[in-house]
Design goal:
Helix content is about 40%, strand content about 15%. By secondary structure, the chain is of the alpha/beta class. It has 2 domains: about 130 residues, Aspartate Aminotransferase, domain 1 (Alpha-Beta Complex); about 240 residues, Aspartate Aminotransferase, domain 2 (3-Layer(aba) Sandwich), CATH 3.40.640. It has a 7-stranded mixed sheet, sandwiched between helices.
């Protein structure tokens, strides 16, 4: 049975909504319920609130407000970026080639694969190093005159590695190829600047930012060709049909404001907890390997593989002991198959099946980490395939 006060160590899967974000959203739900497309006073007030949120998101990203589009989540933002730009570029120029890395979130990778399977786009996967990072030179060598879009994740959700986004963006900018990044995992922990990073498109998901699960953002640089992927009204400058969610937009804006003002203090704490966690696991469990880059990784992220360990069994044992973790992407937890990302790194299946992701957040304490490190070695032993439970 789960302990009465379980410890949450899965902040990469989702984050609790910050109480200050809740307050902003509650006020909007009760007082700002107008449809921003309506011409009357209630609609005008809702529209003003929506545009204030758009301006706040733009400031966070160093973008222009007209380049900010509100969506329902990061997955929708990724889909809109890939489908919208690929189709628009092919219509305008005949470009048919898509470059993505094999360690993308499934919202990007599976979307690109579907574009290839159903719409005959030419999909090419970029090589990655042993830490899951993309070399800008490998992007440059694979760009073609027919390349429609390049998409490389800012920081990987399963292994935490951070990509050299600015350098990749510079390569794409010089070639005149639109460059998209999924920054859903990165935005809470790393400075975001679409100008410095040479970005044409960037996706955010609010629930990874201590915001609501009902909100997302897509930045689209002015002049980048993109088509809507759903039909209906002309909301979001005709790019995303459907009545806008004012409370979620305001919640995203407030979540980003808090991140901007508090990031440095939080990062200092996260790094101490993460480094203690990594050192403790590697020193106490001989058959543990760190996945992802040892230094260029998210400050709150630790991920491991254990040889001949059943990852799902390990998660269940940890849950029963009062610790909530993940085997990688929360979108895939529970799957008996090895992670696509770990296999792309050529991790042997007997290791990849024993993956564990531990991510800390604002409410994690040093005591939580020490208690976790006390429990983990025994649970790894119990989860060893062939061992009794």
């Amino acid at each position: 049975m789960t302990q009465p006060n379980p410890v949450y160590l899965d902040y990469a899967a989702t984050t609790p909504v910050d109480p200050r974000v809740q307050q902003v959203m509650m006020a909007a739900w009760t007082a700002n319920y107008g449809n921003p497309s309506s011409v009357h006073w209630f609609g005008q007030r809702a529209e003003a609130a929506l545009e204030s949120a758009r301006e706040a998101v733009a400031a966070f990203l160093n973008a222009h407000p007209s380049e900010i589009y509100f969506t329902s989540c990061g997955t929708e933002s990724d889909n809109l970026a890939l489908r919208g730009v690929a189709r628009a570029r092919r219509m305008q120029t005949g470009a048919n080639h898509i470059l993505v890395s094999p360690v993308e979130h499934s919202a990007v990778l599976h979307t690109a694969q579907q574009l290839a399977a159903l719409e005959n786009f030419d999909l090419e996967l970029l090589p990655v190093d042993a830490f899951g990072r993309v070399d800008p030179a490998s992007v440059a060598s694979r760009l073609r005159s027919s390349t429609a879009l390049v998409s490389v994740v800012y920081a990987n959700n399963e292994i935490g590695s951070i990509n050299p986004i600015s350098e990749i963006g510079r390569v794409c900018r010089q070639a005149g190829i639109p460059f998209h990044t999924d920054a859903v995992q990165a935005a809470a922990y790393l400075p975001m600047d679409v100008q410095a990073d040479n970005l044409d498109l960037l996706s955010l998901g609010a629930h990874k930012l201590y915001g609501p699960k009902s909100g997302g953002v897509l930045f689209v640089r002015r002049g980048v060709p993109i088509q809507a992927v759903q039909t209906g009204g002309k909301q979001e400058n005709g790019l995303r049909a459907g009545t806008q969610d004012i409370p979620s937009a305001l919640g995203i804006a407030e979540a980003l404001r808090l991140i901007q003002s508090e990031r440095d203090d939080h990062t200092t704490c996260f790094l101490k907890l993460r480094d203690r966690l990594i050192a403790g696991v590697l020193s106490s469990i001989p058959d543990a390997r760190l996945t992802g880059h040892p230094r260029s990784r998210l400050p709150n992220h630790a991920s491991f593989v254990f040889e001949d360990v059943d990852g799902n069994t390990l998660l269940a044992l940890l849950d029963a002991a009062g610790f909530a973790c993940s085997s990688g992407s929360a979108c895939k937890s529970g799957s008996p198959r090895p992670s696509e990302i770990l296999l792309a790194l050529e991790t042997p299946p007997e290791w990849a099946l024993g993956s564990l992701r531990v991510t800390v957040g604002r409410y994690t304490t040093p005591e939580d980490i020490e208690n976790f490190l006390t429990v983990l070695p025994q649970k790894v032993t119990q989860a060893h395939r062939g061992e009794g439970k």
